[in-house]
């Protein structure tokens, strides 16, 4: 994937123009699928292109990974972003898969096909909403928001900003003070400019 090594000046100007907004938040039309259970990482390991065991390993593992779901022949079916929701290795692994909402049922069916005797539960998460966040100033975005389920840098590239998972109906201005909700088309234009 070709990614330009630049920041998002157009969106940052947009944030500054919105009465000093700390960040631009864009609602995404993507869905979340929860995979929970003692064998969640081992189950996903052979079905995705990235090393899923990093999400459950001890130490400072990444909170999010970008991957592709594979079919039996090893061909890419869907692109997904994985998020770790459990806080420590002592907790039961809980991983969220972000995917396009139009393929949620297909991915769920694909995973259930390979679930054979694995101790995992696979279920959609309709009570959660997903947001792309482009900070107006990199120092203005909090590293941890109390009301967010998860706030993490986008695992694909730094110029893509952050990903925010929150409860449906949550007040974004309480999660990221001073943020403004933007048009998702502006976010898509930003993505396309990055290559």
TrEMBL record:
Gene3D superfamilies named in the record: Probable tRNA modification gtpase trme, domain 1
One GO molecular-function entry: transferase activity
Cellular component per GO, a single term: mitochondrial matrix
Swiss-Prot/TrEMBL keywords: Transferase
Nuclease found in the keyword field: no
An individual GO BP term: iron-sulfur cluster assembly
Protein name (database record): CAF17 transferase
Organism: Setophaga kirtlandii
């Amino acid at each position: 994937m070709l990614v330009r090594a630049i920041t998002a000046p157009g969106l940052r100007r947009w944030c500054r123009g919105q009465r000093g907004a700390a960040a631009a938040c864009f609602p995404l039309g993507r869905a979340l699928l929860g995979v929970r259970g003692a064998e969640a990482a081992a189950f996903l390991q052979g079905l995705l292109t990235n090393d899923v065991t990093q999400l459950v390993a001890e130490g400072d593992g990444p909170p999010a990974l970008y991957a592709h779901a594979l079919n039996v022949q090893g061909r890419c079916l869907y692109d997904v972003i994985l998020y770790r929701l459990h806080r420590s290795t002592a907790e039961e692994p809980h991983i969220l898969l972000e995917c396009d909402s139009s393929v949620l049922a297909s991915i769920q069916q694909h995973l259930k096909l390979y679930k054979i005797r694995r101790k995992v539960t696979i279920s959609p998460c309709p009570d959660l909403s997903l947001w792309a966040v482009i900070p107006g100033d990199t120092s203005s975005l909090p590293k941890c928001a109390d009301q967010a389920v998860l706030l993490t840098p986008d695992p694909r590239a730094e110029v893509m900003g952050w990903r925010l998972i929150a409860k449906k109906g949550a007040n974004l201005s309480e999660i990221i003070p001073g943020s403004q909700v933007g048009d998702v088309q502006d976010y898509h234009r930003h993505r396309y400019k990055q290559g």
